[in-house]
Amino acid sequence: MSSSFVDLHCHSTASDGTLSPAEVVALAVSCGLSALALTDHDTIGGVAEAAEAAAKSGIDFMPGIEISCDVPRPATMHLLGYGVDLVSPVLLDLTTRLIGGRNDRNPRIIQKLNELGVAITMEEVEAEAGGNVVGRPHIAAILHRKGYVSSIKQAFDKYLAQGAPAYFDKERLTARQAIELVQQSGGLAVLAHPVQLRTENDAQLERIVKDLTDLGLAGIEVIHSDHDAALVEKYTSLADRYGLLKTGGSDFHGTNKKNISLGTANGRRVPREFFDRLVERVAGPMRAG
Ligand code: AMP
Ligand code: ZN
Ligand code: FE
Ligand code: FE
Predict the structure, then answer these.
(1) CA-CA 20 to 30 A from 198: which of 54, 76, 136, 161?
(2) What span, in angstroms and rounded, lies between the C-alpha atoms of 17 and 95?
(3) Which secondary-structure segment (H or E) carries 77?
(4) Residues 82/50/170/89 CA torsion (nearest 10 deg)
(5) Measuring from atom 14 of ligand 1, which residue has the nearest CA?
């Protein structure tokens, strides 16, 4: 395998991406990546298909999941769980809880949209998701198709984003719960796109990283489409100081995020070494125990 680049953060139709898991793998191959991790929101539903496609095309693969944690607004904290054991009962319990949080939220969004004069039903949303995890981008796609908005972005701005009239939060796990459940599922927890923590200063960021590390955090996503050069440098230095793994990915969602291409994060590529260190840790002592 000659390529020295990987992508460790991307989404498929199993959550809110627009390519099937096998299509994401095929794209990774055509981009010349040597390894891929699929990190759908709240589900590992796409992992088996992606793993099979990866095995056939000779690209290395790592199962993953992305979990939104409960933090005060306007911050968002997402944790990536890498290398989880797909048959772990704890993992099944985790995804059941996460999807339950969504299932409570979605009908409230639909009801509010109806009150706002938008004709949309839960059945349409479920059809749009095709049996996969329902996310707001599915609702946005319907609003767009029906002409209520001119773009997915406008659907969020006008209706679905935090602060907009049809926004409802979903029940989230605390970071402590998410890290514990990922670990008990045989995986490693990594802080996704720390820029989205929206910390006010470096001291606050460092305190969060320290607290998460005490809870068992294994790594920081240093390269991401939302990170410029200065942020990559800041997060790299933080990871190194706390002895954490460094990871990186595009956060590719297919055409749901049109400006993001698989394998590239704000003009940067993710070194193969990040994947290799992650594999070592996933396969290491944690698994043996
Ligand atoms: P959900 O998982 O249902 O909360 O939806 C989260 C997804 O919605 C994210 O992964 C983004 O892809 C998308 N999203 C969130 N906010 C926006 C926004 N303002 N514009 C476009 N997409 C967004
Ligand atoms: Zn997403
Ligand atoms: Fe995220
Ligand atoms: Fe993501």
Answers:
(1) 136
(2) 18
(3) strand 77-82
(4) -60
(5) 137
